Write a sequence for this structure.
């Protein structure tokens, strides 16, 4: 990601994701579905609830080891904008991020990564 000009921030759980988003806008969140303390579904729900009050839309891409079609549907139904399955391949990740950023409007330079150290 950094080689493509993105700044990457890492959060180790959903609570850290929310804390980072409170203090710094990011273009895209790569949200691990299975995180300790607060999982990706809970963090996404909290982000979407805040958006209902304050407006805006945070682009969120789910990252999960669950690769079944219904898992993708569950992620999208939870309010995530896209889906990528693990193991994550660099080419697929870059294509997914760039496609999501192209649909979200002007891109800045920060991306928030939430996988637990797996890229």
């Amino acid at each position: 990601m950094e080689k493509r000009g993105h700044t990457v921030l890492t959060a180790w759980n959903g609570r850290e994701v929310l804390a980072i988003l409170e203090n710094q806008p990011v273009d895209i969140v790569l949200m691990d579905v299975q995180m300790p303390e607060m999982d990706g579904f809970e963090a996404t729900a909290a982000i979407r609830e805040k958006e209902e009050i304050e407006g805006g839309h945070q682009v969120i891409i789910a990252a999960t080891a669950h690769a079944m079609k219904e898992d993708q549907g569950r992620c999208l139904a939870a309010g995530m904008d896209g889906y990528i399955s693990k193991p994550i391949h660099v080419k697929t990740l870059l294509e997914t991020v760039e496609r999501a950023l192209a649909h979200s409007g002007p891109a800045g330079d920060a991306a928030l990564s939430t996988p637990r150290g797996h890229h």
Summary: The two ends are 10 Å apart (CA to CA).
